[in-house]
Every structure is written in C-alpha cells, then in structure tokens.
Amino acid sequence: MGAGGHHQLYRPGGTVVHRLAPQCKLPAVAAFAVVVVATPREAFWAFGVYALLLAAVAAVARVPAGFLLRRMVIELPFVLFAFLLPVIGLGERVDVLGLSLSAEGLWAAWNILAKATLGVVASILLAATTEPRMMLLGAQRLRLPPLLVQIAMFMLRYMDVILDEMRRMRVARESRGFVARDVRHLPALAKSAGAMFIRSYERGERVHLAMLSRGYSGSMPVIDDLAAPLGSWVTAALLPTAALATAVLSWSLT
Predict the structure, then answer these.
(1) Does 232 reside within a domain?
(2) Residues 58 and 173 in one domain
(3) Which of 41, 51, 82, 191 suits a disulfide with 109, CB 3.0-4.6 Å?
(4) What's the CA gap between 158 and 208, in Å, rounded?
(5) Nearest Cα to 80, choosing from 48, 112, 40, 121?
(6) Which are the contacts of 20, defined by CB distance < 8 A and separation ≥ 6?
(7) pLDDT digit string, tens, across residues 190-221
C-alpha cells in the first residue's frame, strides 16, 4: 500500500542509517529510549554522552542540525511544564538569580528536559531516515499486532486525502464570506467537523467494500522484501549498546 509520497519528517538519502532495515532501527531506538529513561538524573555526564551519540548518528545520516531543531518544536509543551516545576514545586528552596525555586522542582525539570529531549531527537532521526510506510512494514516484520499495523497504514495512506478534504471545505466556507473570528462562529466550525467525520466514515465504508471485492481477508499482503542481514542488526545495535554501557557506568558511580 502506498504512502502517498514522502512525509515531511522524512529526509531522503542513501546513507548507512537510511539503508538499515526498519525492523532493526525500531527496536534500537526503543532500547535507547529505555536506557536514557533509566539513567540517574544526577549523572550529567551520561546525558552528554547520549547527546554525542545522537550527534554522531545525525552526522552519519547527514541530517543537519537545523532540520532537527525545527522539528523539536513538538517538545515545547514539555519544556513549558518543566520550567513551571521549580516555581510550583514544594520542599527545600534555593535562590537562583534572585528567585526562590524548589530544589526538587529543579531536579525534576532537568530530568524531564534531558530525557524528553534525547527521546525526541532519537525519534526525529528515526523518522528522518525511514519512510513512514517502511516503518510500518518493519513493525509488521517485528510481529506487532497486525490489526494495529493495518490501522496505522490506512491512517498514513488517507491522511493527505482527509487534509485535502478539510482544505476544500475551508475554501468553500471562505468563498461564501465566512471567516472564523470569535466564539460565535464555533457552531459553524462544529458542523463542518461533523460533516468531515461523516464523509470520512462513508469513504472508509466504500474503501472497505472495494477491498472485500478484491479478495481482502483480514491481512494485507507483504510485497516488499525487508529481510535484514546480521550486519544490519549489529549496526543498529551500536547506539543502544553504547548507551547501555554509559548507563551501567553511571549506575556504578552514583
């Protein structure tokens, strides 16, 4: 099943990281995230090592820093929450630049910022070097629940279709002089959302009937050969293995 073109998070390339099989990269990134989360928050140097490991992966994959920074905006809610913790936190207070802040809140803020940032960067690198469709096929190879994989495939395939439908509805509203300016226009927007839901549901019914007429029996055929040689698994394991060694050393020093 096609993916309807490259996703905006994907950056085409022919590097070693791009060529790795998706079923190798998915568990590698997941293992890296688990190791980062399990690292003691007091081990500042360990998080620096993790950042250097990700920087090395980005360099090998030829993913520029600007590309990563623009897509890290998704982390902004976590950053805002982390900045509030030292202010609203309880317990011992410390003075920082003339402000009385919670010591435990500062530790919690650092813990969230460091681990969330590393996890987000790792996810962005995964998305930048793996096409969304190939990522789902890799999940299928890893024996993830088939129904969930199929739902994700259909969502990926028809996301652009739904977005185009929403754009057409917006153009139709504006061509009739409607421009949402305040809460008085919420009923009209709610009706548009309801119409969008009904259209999407009806389209899904038509697609399902078309698939049944073509012999769909509950599973999608796997056309792509995603066999992963041992070298791919070894290469993908370098990141989580190095991170695990760093984490073990940080546990022994704390």
Answers:
(1) yes
(2) no
(3) 82
(4) 13
(5) 112
(6) 129, 228, 232, 235, 236
(7) 888 888 888 888 888 888 888 889 887 776 66
